Amino acid sequence: MDPLPHADPTAVADLAAAIRRLSKGSVLVIGDAMLDRYVYGQVARLSPEAPVPVLNVQRELAMPGGAGNVVRNLGALGAAAAFVSVVGDDQAGADLTGLIGGQPGLEPWLLVQGSRITTVKTRFVAQGRAMQGFHLLRADREDTRPIHPKLVERMLRIARDAMAATSVTILSDYRKGVLAGDIPAQLIAAAAKMGRRIVVDTHGADHARYAGADLIMTSARDVGVSVEMPVEGDAAVAAAATVLRERHGFGAVLVTRAEDGMTLVDAQGSRHLRAEATEVFDISGTGDTIVATLAAGLAAGLELRMAARLANIAGGVVVGKVGTGVVRESDLLAAISPPGALRKIVGQEVAAERAERWRRNGWRVGFTHGWFDPLTPGHVHLLDQARGACDKLVVGLNGDAGAPGRGDEPLQPEAVRAARLASLPCVDLVVVNEDASPAALLRMLRPDVLANAADRPPGQADGDDLVQEWGGRVMLADPLPEAAAE
To answer: C-alpha distances in angstroms, 85 versus 31, 207, 333, 353?
Structure first.
């Protein structure tokens, strides 16, 4: 088992250096694209028509899923990617094409097949203290038949060209028809001829279809079914994976084992990677994150075992996010860094993900903002009151870039101001905001409570009207008593 790296500065430095290399590679993804929809709302009553909850819909999100989520994760890591898949000639296919096409650093090849249904997974999620992010229902709309033979020929031609221009190819097989029949075998043969690596993420026990792949990622359950061997415990999993590897000529087998972590079996033997998750909110798309990180590492020239280590850390991070999440370089660096106040300082996208996670857990999210230059007892008094009005407090810190509009330079740079705010027990996150207005940050965070100083009455403070659009409220903090301020 690999120990946590926190106690070993050298191990942390090696991991950090490897993480920063993940953006250097190029990866081709071929597989089943789908559209993930999330419908969020509140549940306050049961339907009089049947014993089912009534979801009062408040907002909806859509994002690429399946192989599309693998591509999202590659983009989040900064790796260049190409994507070959098939969608239906329908609105969902158009929506999915637009979402994927908007990702930077990606070359998409989404082929359209007439009369085919684009796979859509719609999850209905209840939020709030009573339900705590409970998944009420998932509704799937899909066509799992193999794609049309003429489209197969075109897809293979495009895939071979894209394979030649990238370092590693991922086959993301969700069994929705894109990689049906002998398509994987043809792609694996083409990769071998070009000297390119193939990484397979499969959802099923028919591993023979991927014979000769450089690495196959599969669940412990599917390994057990495939080789008809027990898979309880490290030794049993390693033995079964070894048989699987030798039977089908795989370069390596990576076995995912949920809360037991992962086991890697290659020519050097077996290695067990314990689960890295500290809290689990949503397992949706975890395998996509793992295979994307693994392939990005291999494409960047990392050794397989280091790439697997990073993939395991990434899996531990993404299960702590809400919905089909992605992992960024900053997430991985934070995961390997020693615990401390500075981990509270995050980017805007990470803050938005964390706020969504807190809301899903039934916690009220508060927000306040300012220069805090320097941090005064009055500021601390405001922050204490703001934290008392919510469960988690996010502080938007005006960055140095906004100083010229202020009329003078800040007394302290943003790094110092952020560190001092992060050291306060009442502050849960600090986010630097370079905009003159907090409006964009407020829209990302959607706080339940906006805290302002009492000398800034409602209607005159930035964001008052905005936060009320989604049912939030404005709180006015009382000024620090003069005696305490002296």
So the answer is: 6, 21, 32, 28
In DSSP notation, 213-253 reads: -SEEEEEHHHHHHHHT----SHHHHHHHHHHHHHHHT-SEE
User: Residue 313's closest CA among 9, 15, 8?
Assistant: 15
Residue numbers annotated as active site: 288
Q: How many whole angstroms separate alpha carbon 172 and alpha carbon 178? A: 9
Res 424: pLDDT: 92
At residue 322, the pLDDT reads 64
Residue written as token pair 């979801």: 55
Contacts of 350 (CB under 8 A, 6+ apart): 328, 330, 331
Query: At CA 299, angle to CA 296 and CA 304, rounded to 5?
Result: 80
Cα distances (Å, whole numbers) of residue 259 to 144, 223, 232, 237, 239:
30, 17, 13, 14, 19
- Which candidate, 439, 444, 449, places its Cα nearest to that of 385? 449
The tens digit of pLDDT for each residue in 49-58 reads 999 999 999 8
- H-run or E-run covering 396: strand 392-398
Q: Which residues contact 124 (CB under 8 A, 6 or more apart)?
A: 39, 41, 55, 135, 136, 137, 138, 139
pLDDT < 70 stretches in the chain:
1-10, 128-133, 277-284, 322-324, 402-410, 456-462, 482-486
The Cα–Cα gap between 167 and 179 comes to: 20
Q: Residue 486: its pLDDT value, please?
A: 46
* Per-residue pLDDT at 466: 85
The DSSP bridge partners found for residue 252 are 215
User: Tell me: the pLDDT tens digits for 238-254?
Assistant: 999 999 999 999 999 99
Q: CA angle at residue 95 from 90 to 100, to 5 degrees?
A: 125
Compute the distance between CA of residue 125 and CA of residue 138 in angstroms, rounded to an integer.
Answer: 9
Supply 219's token pair: 């669940």
3-class DSSP state for residue 204? coil
Distance CA 286, CA 203 (A): 13
Containing 42, the helix (H) or strand (E) segment is strand 33-46
For 84-102, what is each residue's pLDDT tens digit?
999 999 999 999 999 999 8
Edge-first strand listing for the sheet containing 134-141: 53-66, 33-46, 120-127, 134-141
Helix (H) / strand (E) element for 359: namely helix 348-360
pLDDT for 350 equals 87
Q: What is the pLDDT of residue 421?
A: 94
